[in-house]
Amino acid sequence: MADTMQFDLVSPERKLTSVQAREVRIPGADGDLTAMPGHAPMITTLRPGILTVISAEGSTEYAVTGGFAEITGDSVSVLAERGLPTTEMTQEVYTSMVVEAKRHHESAREEAGEEAVEAAAKLLADMVAMGTHIGLDPHQASL
């Protein structure tokens, strides 16, 4: 079994990375998971969080707001709704993400059922936790 696997991360704006990785830590919608070479094939949805890639170059973190990950024994492909290296995550970018999540939550409360409101509240909470993890202030977004 190989000790690395192909990892690709893309968002609608750009291809973020393509590297040989030892492991990829994924913020899955049903819980965090780590993909390594030889992993069982699966597809999972993402929640807002930090995706971490461990490669020969070291550890690199990316903030993702959702999307999908396809895992096979020799590769991981992530299609992020929105993603960027945490080194590029500014307070301004983070604030816009939180404001958008808050707007979605308010809209769900006004127009949707209880299940949609709970999903929107979880999305907002995950967004706040992601920013806090990388040292950004969720209160800048007028929560």
Task: Characterize this entry briefly.
This protein is of the alpha+beta class. The chain has two helices and nine strands.
Your description of this structure?
The chain is α+β, with helices and mostly antiparallel strands and 143 residues long. Helices cover 29% and strands 41% of the residues. It has helices at 91-111, 114-133, and strands at 5-10, 15-28, 31-35, 42-46, 49-55, 58-64, 67-71, 75-80, 83-85. The mean pLDDT is 89.
The tally of domains stands at 2
Q: Strand fraction band?
A: 35-45%
Write out the CATH superfamily name of the largest domain: F0F1 ATP synthase delta/epsilon subunit, N-terminal
Low-confidence blocks of residues: none
**Topology order in helix (H) and strand (E) letters:** EEEEEEEEEHH
Radius of gyration: 16 Å
**CATH level-3 fold name of the largest domain:** ATP Synthase, domain 1
Give the second-level CATH assignment, the architecture of the largest domain: Sandwich
Given the structure, what is the number of helices?
Answer: 2
Distance between the termini: 48 Å
CATH class of the largest domain, anyone? Mainly Beta
Instruction: Please count the beta strands (DSSP E, at least 2 residues each).
Output: 9
Structural class: alpha+beta
The main β sheet shows up as: 9 strands, mixed
* Relative helix content: 25-40%
Shape: globular
How confident overall, as mean pLDDT? 89
